[in-house]
Structure formats: C-alpha cells, structure tokens
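Researcher: Next entry in the queue.
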Amino acid sequence: MKGEFLLEIGCEEVPASMIGEACGNLQELLEGEVRAAGILGDRRVETFATPRRLIAYCPDLLQAEPDRVDELLGPPRGAAFTPDGKPTEAAKAFASKHRVLVEALQIVRTPKGEYVAALRRLLGRPTAEVLAEIFPRVFTQLRFPRTMYWTSRNGLRFVRPIRWLLALYAGRVVKFDLGGVTSSRYTLGHRALGARAIAVKNFADYRRKLRRALVLIEPGERRAKILCEAKRLLVGKRLILRHDPELLEELINLTEYPTSILGAFDPRFLQLPPEILVTVMRDQQKYFSVLDRAGGLAPHFVAILDLDGDASGIIRTQHERVLRARFQDAEFFWHADLRIKLEDRLNQLAAVVFAERLGSYAAKVARLGQLASWLGKNVSADGRHADIQVLSRAAQVAKCDLTTQMVGEFPELQGIVGGLYARAQGESEPVAQAVYEHYRPGAIDEPSPTTLEGALLALADKIDSVVACLAVGLAPSGSSDPFGLRRAAQGAVKIIVDHKLKLSLPQMLSAAAAIVASQVNDLDTRGAPLVASVHEFLLERARYLFRETQGFAHDEINAVLAADCSNLVDVQARLKAIHKLRPSQDFELLSTAFKRIRNILQQAGNQEVWMARAVEPTQLQAGPERDLFEIFQRLRPRVAELRSHQAYEPALRLIASLRPYVDRFFDRVLVMSEDEALRKNRLTLLAHLLREFSTIADFAEIVPVPPAAAAMPIQEDDHD
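Model: Structure for this entry, 720 residues:
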C-alpha cells in the first residue's frame, strides 16, 4: 500500500537568487532520506517554490518501513560455550539481555574470529512516524548563503522566519514542531490577495485551492503567464519583448501570481545610449525592455506585478513616474560625466581602493598597461597582430569610468559606460570597443570580447586580479569570493580558448607576478610557488570549460593535461584528437598497456633513472623484444615531426598502431628477468617508450571503456 505526502514550508519572502538552489537542495535531501528509510515508491520527490513557500510532494510513499533483522554481536564463541557445546553464563546473560532463547543464538564468522550473535526482527515503523523524524532533520541541512534566527539567538536558523508548516501523509497531518511552529493541514494564500488560512486534503486539493487564492506554485506556470500576457500586450502595437532569460527567472522567483502591465516613457530619453536605458530598466526596476520591429529600443517597458491586475492604471502611472525620475538621473549623469575626459580622471583613481595591500585602482591601471603590452607583444610574435598603441591607450582609460557619477549610481555599467564615454569623447573605435568589452565574459555562457585588443585587455585585467590577490592571500574560500577571482579565472581561460591565444601560461603568470612585485615593494610574490598555485587555479577552470561546454570526458582532459598543460590552445587541439580516436579498440588497449608500463617502472624504482639510460641494442633478444624496439625507432621521428606541426590525429594513429607490438612483448617477454643486464635494458626500453609517446597525452590516465563499447581497430600504418 502507498500514500501521498505533501510538505510546505511557509516563510517570509526568500530572496529570488536563493530559491532555485534551495528547491534543488530540498529535493536532494528529502529524496535521499526517504530512500534510505526504504519508503520511497516508484515516483521521485518533486519540489516547487515561490517567494513564500518551499514545497515537496511525492504521490506514492510506502505506508511503512520494511521489516528488518538486526544481528547483535555477543561474546566470542570460546567464552560463550564450553568445549562440549554447553552455554556459559556469558551466553545466558547475552541471550537474556536481548530477550532471545539461548538455543536461538548463532555462531558468526568475523575478521576477528567466531562470535555469538542474536538475531532480532524489528517491524517497520509507520511512514508518518518516519517522516516526523525526517522533516526536522532535512530543515537543518538545507543550505543557504545566509541564514537568520528569529526566536532566540540559540534558536533555529533558516533563510527567513518560518510562519507555517503543512505536512500531510495519506491525507493525515504529520506532526512535528520547528522554530516554535507546529505542522498542520493549513496553508496561506497570496499575502496581498488572499492571506487566509486554507485547509487542504491532498496535493490536488492544495494546488486547486492555492490557485483560487492567487498562488501559482509551479514556476513553469508563472513563466507562461508572464510571457503570454506580455505578448498579448505588445502584439497589437507591433512591439517585441526584449529577450532576457535571467530577468525572467528572477521575476518568476519574485512573484506568486505575476501579472504583466505595459508602461511608456518619454521618447526623448531614447537619445541616451540604449545600454544605459536597458540597465536602468532591467537592474534597477526589474522591467523588461521593449523593441520595435527594426530591433531598436522602443519607448515602452513591461513591468511584472505580484497582483491580479491594474484596472485603474494607478500602478502603471506610478511605475512610469519612478522610471522617469531614474532616466532623468541617468540623463544628468551622462551629460555631466562627458564634461570631463576619461584621461583627466586618472588622478582620481588614486582615491579608489582596489584591495588591501594592493593599493588603488591607479596602481592597478599601471599594472594593467604593462601586462597588456606584454600580452600584445607575445601574441604578435606568434603571428597575430595586436595594436600595442591601442592596447596601451585602452588600458590607460579602462578603469576611469569608476570615478563617474553614472557608475556610482549604476555600478552594473562599469566598463560598458567607459566604452561609451570613450567613443563620445573622440577616442578611436578600437580603443572604445576594447574598453567597452573588457569585463567580458562575465559567465561561461557569455561571449568573449570581439576584437583581439579587447580580448587581450580583458585577459590582462583578469590575470592581474587573480595573480595579485592570490599573492597577498586573498584566495577564495568556500562560497566567499569577494573579488570574483573564480569568475575572473574562468573568463581568462575562455578568452584564451575562444581567441586561440597561443600563450604559455607559466610565462604569462610569471610576467604578471613580476609586475606586481615590482610595484609593491613589501610584497612577497613567492616566485615559483605563486605561479604554480595560480596555474593550477586556472587549470581547474579549464577542466570545467572543456568538460561542461565542449563535451570532453574527464579522463581525456586528465590525460592531455598530464602530458603538457602550459598552452590551452594546444591542449584543446590534443583533446580533439584524443576524443576522435578514443572509440578505437587499439587506442583503448594501448592505454591499458601504458598503464601497465608505468606501474612496472614505478615498482622498479625511479623512472628518471631508466629514462636517463640508453637502450643497448646488443642486449635485445630476437622476437617481440627486438620487434618493439625497431618499430619504436622507426615511429619516434615520424611522431615527433607530426607533433611539431600539431598534426596530433595522425601522430596518435601511429602511436596506437604500436598496440600489437606492445601486446606481444608483454605476452612473451619477462621484463623483470633474473638476468640483471636484460632486466635493466628492458626497463630502459619501456621508459623511453613511455616518455616519447606520452607527450600528446598520458595514455595511462585513460579509463578503458567496456569491451562491448569498443570499436574496430585502427588500420595500421605501413611502417616500412
């Protein structure tokens, strides 16, 4: 028999940014608990959320825990029974303690020997009783960036004060207390539109009654309502809602019964750059911008109310009045800021602190200019052409907008408004574009800067922040990352890969560390340890990029990075080759052979010792041993030549064709021969083989796929 359970945590408004993660966390914890208790049926736990409630539901939990048999370990057999098998006082006392007959005691084998055991059958508890224990435990494990207490300093902590608890199983209340609130079958409707107590019988009744009380518990339903109403408002005016998925998700989590209204503003404000208008509407007011059919910004906006409408139009008028005031502020800031050239603001940056022990933004601008020039010269030396003058000028003015009134009021515009001011004040278009884009990408799914100079400026800015902050001990810890160093490192990696910048990471990081050290005299940059630490910090982000956005397997990434991780563009090229040839049988089996080689060398001592020796051909025996050496000698220069031209796929095909020779060697040759000269020569051969053919990828890191998934062997090349 099965029954439905329903849980609702009613509280004060939860911040929109925390709702999605809290919902997933509740589902994971609750499902894990009911599964561990053995009461989860065929259906998974579902979770929903609004600003005022977290909801969990499952239609078929079992009515009781499964019965179980506990094995209770007692004294050793020798202490419990005499040699002729009669129970001792120890056996009788153990049986009496656990209320079993002495005759029912059993002998069990353990790693420590034979012991007496009693088997006790326990009936499973009713599900309602189990849930009453599970729910409070789940609450204490829910994770939030910040929590609060509201009953006492030592009382329950939660993201917001809990106001009611609804908990039902099979239509009956699951009784428990939490933070001074006792569970019941009552919920509350919309705070402003129907905040009355509502008794519910089951989930269908709960959802139906809340909808009547103007609460839509499913985020998908709120999303559809917002989009459908907005489209209906705009279609007759030949207008289009500006696509903004992040704002849409935020508004879904800010409302329980969203209603769209269409507002307007004075078209004269369209003289301001659209980036400013959109930022004011989006980030300050949570409004959707509206586009005309040509794709330009229209003098309208869509606001989302957590109400059932605005029949009188009073709310729309109030929103228009507030937006007009915000636009007037932006208009004033725009014209006032333009009176001072960006370069004339440089001296003001000395008063803007970047970070403790790292000084002001004026100091950061100086570092930024040096590192950007270094990057420009190194990229240009690789065949790309970066305009060093553009880079230097853009680095000089990139942070000057931090002193403007516009950024002071709308910090979301930093960088963007700097580029707009640069363009309006007559800076060259490449300089303005580089400044405009130098904070990109802000996330893994955002685009990198479009120009080479913009990419190098953004890269310099991010690398300087990471190196400088890690040098003074400001590394992120846990969820705390006040300087956004993880985001900066992720952005730096993405820029390098997107723009195919063939830069040596250790050289770039060494240059950045030297620039920081030369500027801050009392700063210990720790030399090589700092570079190694930042290098690994970047590689963690590179692993994420290659795995999550480009689809490479975890072991493929490990194999390639183990071979060489200094150049991310080269890493990507080797990954593509590995991924393409991975399904072949020869490749998979060769990886197993290389792992065997590495294990043999590790057991035989320091690998470097064997690699430093030369193979002695006269010590090689005819057959598989000499065959492997000769094919190795023929393939080594060909693989090296292909590798030097980054022709990794044909190089890997050649390496994979070694597989039958390696297999025959291990089948017929005893590596650890009793003859010392033979043993050392064979270890030397394997060491050279491993070193020469592990420069593209460390094959030993590849995890073999099941045999059924293996493909046809790679066609062997003609080695003659």
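Model: Residues 73 and 110 are 10 Å apart (CA to CA).
Researcher: Noted, moving on.
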